[in-house]
Amino acid sequence: MAKAKLLGVGVYAPGEPIGNEELKRLAGIEFDAEKLESKIGIKARHIAKLRGIDETSADFAEKAARAALADAGVEAHEVGLFVVGTDTPEFVSPATAILLQGRLQGGEAESEAYDVGASCASFVTALDAASRALATDRRLRYALVVGVYNMPAHVRPGDAFGFSLFADGAGAVLLGKTEDDDPAGYVEGCFRADGTQWNFVGVYAGGTRKPLSRELLESGRYGLELLQRLPGDRNVKLWPPLVRSLLEKADWSLENVRHFIFTQINRAVIEEVMGILGRPLSDTTCVMDRYGYTGSGCVPMALHHALKEGRVKRGDAVVLVASGAGFAVGANLLVL
To answer: CA 98: distance to chain centroid?
Structure first.
């Protein structure tokens, strides 16, 4: 039976990094930089609009995708499936993945393109969907999966919470079809959802329930909105059971997993989860110190650095775990 194999990775973040003190000046905000660095782990980030860079989600996705194609040595015209995982798309419609296909292939092609919107779990959800498509579609040879984030575009002026945490970036992976006798490839995915918890944090204006209007803009009820504080221990409670469920579903042992990559929202939480799993911190990769929190982009960005910095190698089993508001949580198991 065929399966999907990771062939290339790519990453992109716009402009020069912005440290915490420079961020205060550029955004005109105040926050506890020491706490942000010591607990959350964020020391710098990339934000296009604060650098005066005219780039948004489709630009980030395109540059990360081109890097992944180059890393794999595959031409864009060979790709038959484009999936973008994001909750900060270029437009409400059309899908960012359709724009990406047009930019990379230059026009009409026998290709499929769609977005996956599962909040910050969009990339792991998209990776599972694309991997299953490669395994079942006889004519499909390559799939390009991009996780991209441009939440700063939705942060209102003066929002210290939004600007201090959220940042711009994209990570991409190029998947290719391989046969079952190849030890490398996508193994399994496992997911959880609870849509009754939709009203914590999100971008609620601009859809059909709350279309943008002059009244909303003047009242400040648009863009990123924190309606309720998220429970601080949510991911500590969610991630270890999800990892164990994933491995049980795949009939895989925890000891055979070489590396774990989690949503890069809080370094202290990742440290606690690794302790619960009984694994050293050397078995995970954190990139929030250089990128801030890049939502659906952070997991593939961390995977890129884990590979390029030699923290993992071909043949290693890796678990990817991501959480998104709403909430949606997902995990992937793959052998590189």
So the answer is: 18
Residue 195 has pLDDT above 90, yes or no: yes
SS3 30: coil
The sign of the CA dihedral 303, 150, 62, 182 is positive
- C-alpha to C-alpha distance for 245 and 191, rounded to whole angstroms: 9
Domains of the chain: 3-37+45-178 (3.40.47.10), 185-335 (3.40.47.10)
Torsions phi, psi for 191 (to 5 deg): -140, 155
Q: How far is CA 235 from CA 40, 42, 274, 328, in A?
A: 13, 18, 12, 11
* C-beta of residue 183 within 8 angstroms of C-beta of residue 3: no
pTM of the model: 0.96
| Neighbouring-strand partners of residue 112 | 81
Alpha carbon distance 205, 209 (integer Å): 8
Residue with tokens 């990453």: 11
Residue 36: φ, ψ to 5°: -60, -40
Closest CA to 119 of 67, 32, 208, 194: 194
Half-sphere exposure of 225 (CA within 13 A, CB side): 17
- What tokens appear for 97 in the block? 């993945």
Residue type, 326: G
CB neighbours (10 Å) of residue 237? 12
What span, in angstroms and rounded, lies between the C-alpha atoms of 77 and 91?
Answer: 24
Look at residues 171, 173, 121 and name the one whose alpha carbon lies nearest to residue 144. Answer: 173
- 3-class SS at 252? coil
pLDDT digits (tens, 9 = 90+) for 31-56: 999 999 999 999 999 999 999 999 99
